[in-house]
Amino acid sequence: MKPGAGLRAYALLYLLFLYAPILLLPVFAFNSGTIIAFPLKGFTTQWFTQMFENASLRQALGNSLTIAVSSSIFATCLGIFAARASTRFDFPGKGPVMGLIMLPLVLPEIIVSISLLVVLLSLGVQLTVLTVILGHTLICMPYATVILSTAFNSLDRSLEEAAYDLGETRWSAFRLVILPLVMPGIISSLLMSFTISLDEFIIAFFLAGNEPTLPTYIYSQLRFPKQIPMIMALGTMLVVLSVILLTVAEYFRRRGIAKTGATDSGGFL
Predict the structure, then answer these.
(1) How far is residue 247's CA from residue 241's CA, in Å, rounded to a whole number?
(2) Which of 256, 258, 261 is nearest to 83 (CA)?
(3) What is the pLDDT of residues 134-157, one digit of tens each?
């Protein structure tokens, strides 16, 4: 046996176990049978047609897109402030503050969801799409901060100092010099946050109220066997969209690293 053959076999089995269910999504999405089982009945696209004609699904998709776009913008804007402060300045309590920002990364989402639900209800806030945006901004901000911290850390400070020497103010130097250099990181943060928000279920389940998002709609339809093939078609579309968004985010991340001349220490893909 060749050296490392056992490790390669383990890695192959692990990847197969991890991704086989996802690879089966398009198989059953194009299957004409209504039962998710082998053998397959035949090829059809009727489930995709049924998916596009479903009014409730379109409403849930609209809610999810609104939430994902809004929360990705808010999380990225807050992430810019946090990343800029953490990489450029030293201030009292910097460690605890940054740890508090990163806390949603290690807290179980069920705990975050219940805590937000209790706080919002105690304040008399009605559960709507806006409350989901608030929750998704909270969980997306740590990811945005990590991505943007890498982008700000890779900047050459002499460029900023040269802008000051040429008469630029702090705001104009930030707008004309720093932001263009970290723009690939900003785009990566937007795409990453968008993907996380679009796929998130637990917070949306607790905070959406009577306005379902796409993941909560899918969960509600799993009780009806006749809806399962349409859900498979929808899952196929979501997987394709997620892969495209993450690929684009990784492209801009690597482009930003190449632009600034920093060292690549890892990425999404």
Answers:
(1) 10
(2) 256
(3) 999 999 999 999 989 888 887 777
